[in-house]
Amino acid sequence: MSEPQRQSDRTIIVCSDAVGETAEAVAKATLRQFTQDGIRIKRYGHLRTEDEIAAIVRESAEGGGFIAYTLVQPELREMMREEASKRGVRAVDVMGPMMQAYIDTFGSFPKRQPGLLHSMDDNYFRRMEAIEFAVRYDDGKDARGLVEAQIVLIGVSRTSKTPLSIFLSHKGYKVANLPLMPEVKPPAELRMEAGKLIVGLQMQPERMLDVRTERLKSLGLPPSAAYAAQGRIQTELDYASQLMKELGCPVIDVTNRAIEETAGIIIGMLNEMN
């Protein structure tokens, strides 16, 4: 690991003696519960030495952030606790309490082998491939993804296509998504039969207005822009509804649904197909 550089006071450092994916996932889930912008996550993986731990704690102390870690090696966990205490850094042990609860309850001891959570098996590689696929074919970047995908999500802007694609990809599904706009004819690949599940995502216009208005605010743009105009929103939703009818695809109203709930419905549809 290279020598860490000094960070701003709006950085959460996540680190692990494996990949660090678990600690990063917990940190991201935490950030979603807050409205502050500008806080970033920096990850260090495959830590092996106490010097690396000391450097990371020093970086966090200088920047004023905090650390989330998953370290299964006892000596590295102890080093993290000592260094964090010495430098006054908040360090959150993501996995340790759960492991200790298992020991106390079931009387067994951990293997202390980093990376067991993400063993390099077929399922792991399948998930990684699906995640890369979702990123590559997000937002209609390449029409080839519409043919190769297991699931294709279509809908107007702000119907949660991207976060839903990423969530499903973490389950191992290859997902592509396509934004629908009246001015842009959908690619021919959308209609090609390839054993895929096409799902239309819709939202009530009142909720869409709120979502788009907030989006414009976050970008520093005036709420009067056409993107958040009620007439424009209705035109887009009507166009999307008509296209979905032509395709004969199932439609899910995502207005009051969590990503997890919508994903569960889609996985159920895919299982029924197979």
- H and E string: EHEHEHEHHHEHEEHHEH
Report the structural category: alpha/beta
Span between termini: 45 Å
Mean pLDDT rating: 88
Radius of gyration: 23 Å
Main pleated-sheet profile: 4 strands, parallel
pLDDT below 50 for ≥5 consecutive residues: which ranges? 2-8
- Strand arrangement across the biggest beta sheet: 2-1-3-4
What share of residues are in beta strands? 5-15%
Helix percent reads 40-55%
Task: Describe the fold and architecture.
- This protein has 274 residues and is α/β, with parallel strands linked by helices.
- Helix content is 46%, strand content 14%.
- It has ten helices and eight strands.
- It has helices at residues 21-31, 50-63, 74-87, 96-106, 122-136, 144-148, 161-170, 205-218, 230-247, 259-273; strands spanning 11-16, 40-44, 66-70, 91-93, 151-155, 175-179, 197-202, 251-253.
- It has a four-stranded parallel beta sheet with strand order 2-1-3-4, with helices on both faces.
- Helix 7 links the parallel strand 5 and strand 6.
- Helix 2 (50-63) packs parallel to helix 3 and helix 7 (161-170) crosses helix 10 (259-273).
- The chain starts with 10 loop residues before the first strand and ends with a helix.
